[in-house]
Amino acid sequence: xxxxxxxxxxxxxxxxxxxxxxxxxxxxxxxxxxxxxxxxxxxxxxxxxxxxxxxxxxxxxxxxxxxxxxxxxxxxxxxxxxxxxxxxxxxxxxxxxxxxxxxxxxxxxxxxxxxxxxxxxxxx
Length: 124
Description:
Layout: H1 2-10, H2 21-42, E1 48-51, E2 54-57, H3 71-91, H4 94-117
Antiparallel strand pairs: 1-2
């Protein structure tokens, strides 16, 4: 991941548009929600749902992680997501950057909301 970001920086592919307050706010909001999603996902093994008379452990639905992921895999995925998102945001010019940040922020909000709706909580 570091090599990819370094290549982008060195190759002149980085956007020349300065970041606006909106860009900074959207990126910050995405990164905060990414941390919330990370904490929910990290604690999935602590959450259960009732189906009929049975108590079942909630399973992860992210295909990159599998149903019962190891914590190390969760850590790697969320760090990679944070770095990749920031790198793509840096590489895009103003208008596509705003679209990218807004779309990914809305999707991540949806994931966090879904996790909360099935009982996932943030445990620090």
